[in-house]
Amino acid sequence: MGPRRLVSYTALKRGLSSGVFDSSPIPTMHFQHSLPRLPVPALEDTVSRFTQAVQPILSNSEFGELSRLLQDFAKSDGPQLHKQLLDYARKNSHTSYITNFWFDMYLRDRRRIPFTHTPFITAAMPPYDLGTEHAQSIRATNLIISALKFKQGLDSNSLKPDISFSDHRVQKKALFHNLCRMTPRALSCYAANMFGAYPLDMSQYANLFASTRLPKPDKDELVVNPNSRNVVFLRNGQIYSIDVLDSAGNIIDAQDLLHGIEWILGDTMAAEYPPAVLTTLDRDSWSDIRQKLLVSNEETLRLVDGSLFVVSLEDETLDEGGLSKREVERVLKHLLVGDGTNRWFDKCVNMIVLRDGGFGLQFEHSWGDGASVMRFFNDIVAHSNAHPAVTPDTVTGGHARGREVTRAEVSLSPELQTRHSCALADFQKEASSLQLSVHHSTGFGRSHIKATRLSPDSIMQLAIQLAHFRISDGA
To answer: Which of 14, 21, 253, 415 is the most buried (most CB within 10 A)?
Structure first.
């Protein structure tokens, strides 16, 4: 492992105390009722922006023909369709008028969801030594405990609201917090705006925990289990479950969780037909197979679907200080797609913890965008780094596996075994065709882009489009 600057746990807690989950003076969902709604753009603006967007990819004659058609549309069908859209927006004033279109775009997509709908994020190793013997179980335990504390804050409405600040000094002012807290919810956003603070929509957090995308014919379904208490672990394609909350909603002792994870890591049983492979299929095929699986495997499927989240325990190593560029690319590709046997791609959140304690988080994209996931990811990494629940010095022996860990079984009929084998071969063939290259830039990044008053996201999108244009010879 490459050299890293290490600090003691005592110094870490003293110097990095993040207060990530400190109770917020402003309730988590305080601003939801006064958030401004996304306005429906004027018809002429829609026509104008569409015209500008497509001009670069059309020939002169094509652009002339399209311009004529758009002018006709603006005078004929356009006004009536625009009126219908305005009526639709008024009837759905509780949310954005694009919300249902967003869900339809994802949930009606019949393609397999790996490669296109399951991005991942990876974190640096923690600023302290995980040791070698228990690195994977320690990192997993600490991340899970921090995630559960995040959930407790979300459930109790005491997590800090998502707010974009024009001046970050404002968030430290008692006047800002007191005024916003005392302002009625229906007006609270306006109070925040007076300080140059802009609250963000937090409705997507409802699908952060205990949520999964179920395959259905024609259109998938997002479901949430409000009574979830367990975390599911995948190891060697095998499914395990640990109840991490007691009947009163309290988080179990971190040592008990650590011992359960240690038992899972020590279990040598590997699944002959890892059921997670089936989540790599196109959605209609997976929907068909799932209905057949439910006949004899309903309890296991409900256990996975209803879990708070999934944790994949895998044998790769991040070893960020000692890997070559090619090895880094290999590890990142593994975090993105794996081998198909150890990720439940339907699950809204799938943590990935590697043998040396490396960490990645994969999420299914239909339920939300990156903002809420990044908040969750950054908070649990910061909290687990600053306040580790277990350390190499506190690991104790002993483990009562029967009380803590459930190994769940899935049985496949001969027909489903054949379809499983085909699915695995097909996934691994497509995964092998995926090329991933890492370029580390030191002179150009987000800060430089923002300094030029441009959007980093737009620059990335343009870079992707330009790359596709070049590799496809402009097709």
So the answer is: 21
